[in-house]
Amino acid sequence: MNDSPAAARDLFHRRLEQSLMAAFLLMVLLVCTAAILYGREERRDRIDSATEQAATLTRALEEHVRRSVGAVDVILQTIATDALARREIDGLPRELARKRALLPQARWLAIYGPELELQGASGDDDVLRDAAALRATLSATLRASDERLHVGPPLGDAAAPVIPVTRRIVGGDGTVLGVAVAMLDSEHFERFYRELELSPAHSLVLTRADGLLLLRYPQYASMRPGLDMSTLSPVFSAPRPLAGPVTLQAASAIDGVERLLTYREIGQPALLVGIGQDLHPLLAPWRQRVLTLAFGVAGVVAALTLLLWAALAQIRRSAEAERRHRETLEHKVRERTAELEHANEELRAFTYSASHDLRGPLHGIHGVMQLLRHKHGKTLPEAALDILHHAENSVANMVRLTEDLLTLSGVGRRTLEPQPVDLSAMAWEIAAELADADPEYHVELRVEPEMSVVGDPGLLRIALHNLLANAWKYSSRAEEPVVEVTSEVFNGERIFIVRDNGAGFDAAHAHRLFQPFQRLHSSREFPGTGVGLATVARVVRRHGGRVWADGAPGAGAAFRFTLPEPEDSTLAQPA
């Protein structure tokens, strides 16, 4: 369809405007995404900081509880030991009162007999009137199978409860003599909470390992001491024992408030200490920053909108000039492409001429020289014969060069016919041909058996022939020439190797070996055209593989190449 120049420019303008709009929307999306990511990162940072603070606080709380309970445990053990030693109760109240004065965290100490009869106490206390609850705790201690410290359900007023801590008294013969009990004062832990100077959003929790709530500060009407938390807090479903501080983020099943809950476990007695923090006040500064950021993003979007319209206006003014410039560039590209195609065509023509048309004249010249030597060789002077010999050698080299160029050119044009190829058998066949060509030269050939690939048999034979002929030639001056054809697997890729113990080369110039007419040894040392390895490289690349070489002067050379495996063989198209 032939459009007018004005219609073409309008179409171009519309498409350019659409592209700019897409870029504008992408920019807005990137800005908004960056803002969202920043907000999420800021939120995560605040939560991480609060988590670290809670871990430190729970560590301090754990130490406080551990020391408080540990001191009580020592006193109870002393009471039990004294009871076993004296077996008398007359001075027991006075002794308990003295020991009670050593424990600011304990409100009351007492010893009960095996029938739960009170044998002595540090003084009167309202808890004594709560005999039923206390008796249940003491009975549970008597039924226990060990003498470890036990923590019972909280007793007394919910606003200021006490926590019974008990230990069995057992005689040397295993007879249960009674129970030593201490009432931990909840105010002792409340003072510690106040000393931490926590915010109102923080809460301190002390529970037994089975989920029984012992204390909570600040006090909360829906979380009275004695509440079973095992089904209300997710920490009790976590694997036990807890590995260090465990932080959970969850909405409370009691009031629906979302909190960060950090717990630590105390092994003996089995307790959990926790610090809770309401997320709403914790994230209040973050929400303020997010709001400020939202206004900032809106301002950036507005500025981008203005820039968009300014850019569109500028593009409309310069559209015609850009169109002319583009047409000029396209014209130059077409010219350069045509010149490149012409140069390639001339190169192909030259290659064909050098490798085909010159073959006949060269063979003719070589034949004339041989005829001259045959008919007049006996009458020509020695100097003329030397000149004739050099000329014959030069023509023979030229013939070999044209043949090699023809082979190199044919590798690029030939259509590949991939099929399974036995490289081991092919190597033995080529070696036999090389040995027949020079029966006086003996080489020890070592070929790895059953090396199979998928490729074009003709091209692979050309490549392997060049590699073996190369190894044959450059190992000719070794005392015991050895040529090896092997393979190895490296990083899952099979690599084929043709190695000799001949003259070798400087590895710093290895890259030149596979370029046409590049030689690292003079033709006087080792004759050749410098095209064979270039042909090898082109064959391997046509098969989708790689070829490289390494060696050292006087230490031989190794030529390595890869070919695609049969299941993923993707051979290159004709070049």
Automatic annotation (TrEMBL):
Keywords: Coiled coil, Kinase, Membrane, Phosphoprotein, Transferase, Transmembrane, Transmembrane helix
Reaction equation(s) it catalyzes: ATP + protein L-histidine = ADP + protein N-phospho-L-histidine
Coiled coil: 312-346
Pfam families: dCache_1_like, HATPase_c, HisKA
Annotated TM spans: 20-39, 290-312
Single annotated GO MF: kinase activity
Alphabetized InterPro entries for the sequence: BphY/WalK/GraS-like, HATPase_C_sf, HATPase_dom, His-kinase-like_sensor, His_kinase_dom, HisK_dim/P_dom, HisK_dim/P_sf, Sig_transdc_His_kin-like_C
SMART domains, alphabetized: HATPase_c, HisKA
EC numbers on record: 2.7.13.3
CDD domains tied to this protein: HisKA, PDC1_DGC_like, PDC2_DGC_like
Domain Histidine kinase residue range list: 353-567
PANTHER family listed in its UniProt record: BACTERIOPHYTOCHROME, TWO-COMPONENT HISTIDINE KINASE
Descriptive protein name: histidine kinase
